[in-house]
């Protein structure tokens, strides 16, 4: 039972970390796009 609980907790933490990482990548791509757009003008 403890192993099952630990696995559930670990899965939850990984899911939250993954969401945060994906969001950060999206922001980085958006900033890079803004820089390219400003350079093109």
From TrEMBL:
Superkingdom, taxonomy of origin: Bacteria
Q: Tell me which PROSITE patterns the record gives.
A: PROKAR_LIPOPROTEIN
- How is this protein named in the record? Entericidin
Originating species:
Malikia spinosa
